[in-house]
User: Fold this.
Amino acid sequence: MTEFELIKRFFTRPTPGAKLGVGDDAALLRIAEGMELVVSTDMLVSGTHFLPDTDPFLLGRKTLAVNLSDLAAMGAQPRWATLALSLPQVDENWLQQFSEGFFALADEYGVELIGGDTTRGPLNLCVTILGEVPKRTAVRRSGALAGDDIWVSGKLGDAALGLAHLRGRIQLPEHARVSCLAALQQPQPRVALGLALRGIARSMIDISDGLLADLSHILESSNVAAEVRYDKLPVSSLFASNGDEMLELAQNCVLSGGDDYELCFTAPDTQRDEIAALSSRLHLPLTRIGKIVSGRGCKVRKADGNVMVLKESGYDHFA
Assistant:
């Protein structure tokens, strides 16, 4: 199978939302009046972002999901995507399942695949996603103010715990294994939440490298500090063990494990009722975990008020 036969068979579909999609040197897009284009790129590398034996359907889905999460963090509506694939060989069964997973999520969020590239090499998946947001409404990292509440969606740490299970650091019971691996392999991009938080949140980011690492980007961009209550973080009951080893693993998973793909955002305390109503409407837990304060850095406090001593702050590709 040639490169162009591969693209035509597995990745070419109608793109009614684009003026020109797959099949030319470049795509042509028409942006709606009064909108700004939002663009993000994420790369997934075998052995770094996923294990080589990951189910290809779930991998195709996650390849797009992590990019949708970036648009959610800006309050943007997803529209189009490009996909670049580096493949060690042409495995038609793998490609069929991968493309089905990718397009299953694309259809769910109305995303059209408008181009990309394929080449031979180590397994590497790269998506560039494009979305739209009304002018001057994108939620940035730089808007947090002292006095803002800090919120997170969903639960934290389950995906990192699932990865710890796959790597043999811990053996999870069956019910926990299923839920944690689902969190790792099937993240739910919070697009609806991101759209709803326009005009409510002052700053926002998606949690991909761990809560502390990603919150620190908001703090740096906004020139503020934060105080977070560890006992307020939304976590699974799996982290309730009193064993020292489990407590340390839980702390690492929740604060710096990464792969949560939840949203962390700040908002003035006057928005608490509106955020509670939003949580109810979306059937999505939204938890207030701390406060933005003046200064630099982030302190994580225990229930007794003492500051925790932290060994890890989050994932860094080059650390």
